[in-house]
Amino acid sequence: MSNFINDAKWRYATKKFDATKKVSTEDFEILKEAIQLSASSYGLQPYKVFIIENPEIRAKIQPAAWGQTQIVDASHLLVFANITNFGDAEIDAYIKNLSETRGIPVESVQGYADFMKSKITTLPEEARNVWTAKQTYLALGNLLNAAAELKIDVTPMEGFEPAAVNEILGFDQLGLNASLIATIGYRHEEDATQHYAKVRKSNEELFINL
Amino acid sequence: MSNFINDAKWRYATKKFDATKKVSTEDFEILKEAIQLSASSYGLQPYKVFIIENPEIRAKIQPAAWGQTQIVDASHLLVFANITNFGDAEIDAYIKNLSETRGIPVESVQGYADFMKSKITTLPEEARNVWTAKQTYLALGNLLNAAAELKIDVTPMEGFEPAAVNEILGFDQLGLNASLIATIGYRHEEDATQHYAKVRKSNEELFINL
């Protein structure tokens, strides 16, 4: 049996966290590495991840997230922020990183840089923002899966007002947009939803063979 | 050490598959279950997954996917198709499934159904299509991670012409849109990119602590 499947069955969108339990620094570093290793379009990782432990900031965010208690009760709050108006500067930074990581001259990958720029910077800004936001879902997926292996609970959230969170965190000035929230910690024993059967489409409903 | 991290370091976007190697039925069922267990917004799984082994269809798709050889050489080709114009019918189907899965009357979750409808069906169609497309990235993430545990290679692809793939697969008539492609199989020993160092943003670049 695959460990992945067992872990995926174990996880659920936690509704109530045990506010007395903190994720250890060691475990949290593993979660960060899982996010860092995420696949992304061209490997560009067009986002930042805000790790928010500060209780005052979390209290400010809670009303912008439908009042959900996980925002303040969880051990850690993460906000995945996609880069808006992604362009040449970000691609050049990636190419510099690639050049340094692999010990090859920037000139040798200039054609690749130009190719990426031709594909990306020709898109309208709105389409680029959608594209950078999509990449945060892959990073969130890595977080969910890595956390499940460690028996750490995560609630992925789209249920918040992006404009309000952007305002609280000053994202507009940073060229960022709040794409996803994840609260991380340990399920409260009183959270009844942990016992609910998972609702999933059947094989026949989900897959089509050609 | 986390198995997740080891597997994530092992995986890479395979450029050349060994066309002689097929993923076993047993392993492929695990990959399907990983996709099926993916988190999604409200658990709605607003997509279908096309499993394409037919070589003629794959040959047709290849030119619409920048001619990439993985399309025809991989063991399996998957197309993640997000549902377009997602609406009341899909939410009602989910509620029926929830009711049956958990053995509770539909009436007891009618308020939840109405809540989801108020949040989703009030969005403009384009925003709903973006939202369903985003969910396919979580499913793809599960595929990548489950495959890595089994030492099965996957190439995630945004590099294709959605309109052309939609046309080939008749997606417009099905109310679907080609969101992502994944080719699945085993890396060719001649694929030099498997030896390249991973390029990732540093901790300092990727994470911000508040």
UniProtKB/TrEMBL annotation, chains A, B:
<comment type="similarity">
    <text>Belongs to the nitroreductase family.</text>
</comment>
<keyword id="KW-0285">Flavoprotein</keyword>
<keyword id="KW-0560">Oxidoreductase</keyword>
<dbReference type="InterPro" id="IPR029479">
    <property type="entry name" value="Nitroreductase"/>
</dbReference>
<keyword id="KW-0521">NADP</keyword>
<dbReference type="Pfam" id="PF00881">
    <property type="entry name" value="Nitroreductase"/>
</dbReference>
<protein>
    <submittedName>
        <fullName>NAD(P)H-dependent oxidoreductase</fullName>
    </submittedName>
</protein>
<keyword id="KW-0288">FMN</keyword>
<feature type="domain" description="Nitroreductase">
    <location>
        <begin position="9"/>
        <end position="186"/>
    </location>
</feature>
<dbReference type="InterPro" id="IPR000415">
    <property type="entry name" value="Nitroreductase-like"/>
</dbReference>
<dbReference type="InterPro" id="IPR033878">
    <property type="entry name" value="NfsB-like"/>
</dbReference>
